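LPS-assembly lipoprotein LptE
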Amino acid sequence: MNRPATLGMALLLALLLSACGWQLRGVGGGAAGLDGTAVYVAGSPARALQDAVDEGLSVSGARQVDSAEAADLVLRIVGDARERRTLTVDRDIRAREYELRYRLTFELDNADGEHLLARSQVNAVRGFRADRDDPVGTEGREEELLIDLRRDAVRLMLLQVAAHRDAEPITDDNAAAAD
């Protein structure tokens, strides 16, 4: 194939990929629907989580405010947790593969302090191989994976926030109907 035909084919593929909505993971935040929404983040998440939330809100188009009174939505970060478990071991009973799980717990209120979303959790999970000859490299991969999992959990949380942004507040009546 000649060079202009190859370039034309590459442009056509790029156009088809962008037309179908495909994008690289982490690009665009995936939290459409928060454009211009004033969000106050309550709670005291750790610095790394706060940075991920700030980035996710910025990418989604939300406007972060400094007080609940100035907010359309109050996103309360209740907590986060990570867990690692061994998936497989080698013949020397050393861990060969791990599963890393990151859990994020949150609530969502409207400007009047009414619950739009009761306490909820999102989970992000991935597996990785341990290199028995390079334990430092394995720890480094685990930390990189944790950053990705945290970012994925924040993206999933913001999707739920966007989905419940205009929801009716939770009352005893509609909570009982949902059960």
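thats it. The longest strand covers residues 73-89. The domain at 31-165 is CATH 3.30.160.150 (Double Stranded RNA Binding Domain). bye
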